[in-house]
Amino acid sequence: MLAVLKEHKGFWTSARKRSMYAGILLLILSIITQIVLGRFSSRVAVDAPSVRDIFLDNLPLVNMGFVIVGGAIVLWVFAWVLLIVHPRYLIFSTKAIALYIISRAFFFSLTHIGPFPLRYSPGPHNDGYGLYHLVTFQGNFFYSGHTAFPFLLALIFWENKKLRYLFLFLTVFFGASVLLAHVHYSIDVFAAPFIVYGMFVISTKFFPQDHALFAS
Questions:
Q1: Is the distance from CB of 159 to CB of 86 less than 8 angstroms?
Q2: How far is it, in rounded angstroms, from Cα 152 to Cα 133?
Q3: pLDDT tens, residue by residue, 144-182
Q4: Residue 11 and residue 2: Cα distance in Å, rounded?
Q5: Which pLDDT tens digit goes with each residue over 50-61?
Q6: How far apart are CA 3 and CA 5, in angstroms?
Q7: 189 to each of 33, 129, 164, 182, how far by Cα in Å?
Q8: Is-contact 90 30, C-beta < 8 A?
Q9: 155 with 198: CB under 8 angstroms?
Q10: pTM for the complete prediction?
């Protein structure tokens, strides 16, 4: 703990503090965007037809609610603790995560497809995770956040092999979980890493000085 405090004390120059404040504002904006567009998409998708899916048509339906909800919350908490412990990653990652949230909200608000008919969908009244459902809505399909977020973390911590492999494993694990629960279509899962990689590269172009702190 003392080592972490010491690292923070020597890290936060005035310029870095201003950049961090900008990242926090961008993150707040991204969450508001997700809530607004998520609610809109959820309302429109209620009456939208579902589509056939080669994976969901053949995969058994499995109750993965404890992973989809509880696991996602644990991952988000773990990720932010990890970033706070390593401040040189924190500024860039806050901004990159914000851009990822905005991009996903933009994408799932464009095309309105109904949920797959046979699915396990954790609800706010039967899983005990009300906080999760404040920012997650039915009809928010493309692209899968459960697949995208751990892949983004793998890109952020790419130079750390242990963390890279952990987050790559979680990308596959969460992707498989949402498919087994039939809460995402397969294109939502398989497209997520490609889009997130693009968003990561865009983030490095938008925030080069923050990204350069990785090597400090």
A1: no
A2: 22
A3: 999 999 999 999 999 999 999 999 999 999 999 999 999
A4: 14
A5: 889 999 999 999
A6: 5
A7: 22, 23, 19, 11
A8: no
A9: no
A10: 0.90
